[in-house]
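We treat protein structure as text, and this decision shapes the records that our systems exchange. The tokens are whole numbers drawn from a learned vocabulary of local backbone shapes. Below, we set out a record of this kind in full and without editing:
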Amino acid sequence: MNLPVDLLEKLQEYAYSGTLGAFAALVGYLYQVARHPGSRVSVFLILTTIVIGFYLGVVFGSFIPKTWENRDAVLLLVGATGLKGFEIIIGWAKSVLPNLLKAIVTPSSGSGPGQGPGKEGEGS
């Protein structure tokens, strides 16, 4: 089975961006544990944080051009936000996406032929 070259390049880019985000998320989690001496390390939270960091890395990596010289640093910073960053992104998406989808789906009035004032066939 031969995979298209562009698919392999895309997967490689996702793996790179996601790995940066996952590593930074792990560092962010361990930093939070170190800041609070009484807290315990949770394997479940470590795995959750790594997966969320990977996701954040892939999402933000797709928005930032590969040629931007500070791209890796931004991906590391975004990944380090971990669960908090994910909560912020979800909150933003819940407030912005419905309006964006409504604007895409709803046709604008009076913009096409035969619509609005001056339509052909209107009575005299």
Remarks:
- The chain has a mean pLDDT of 83.
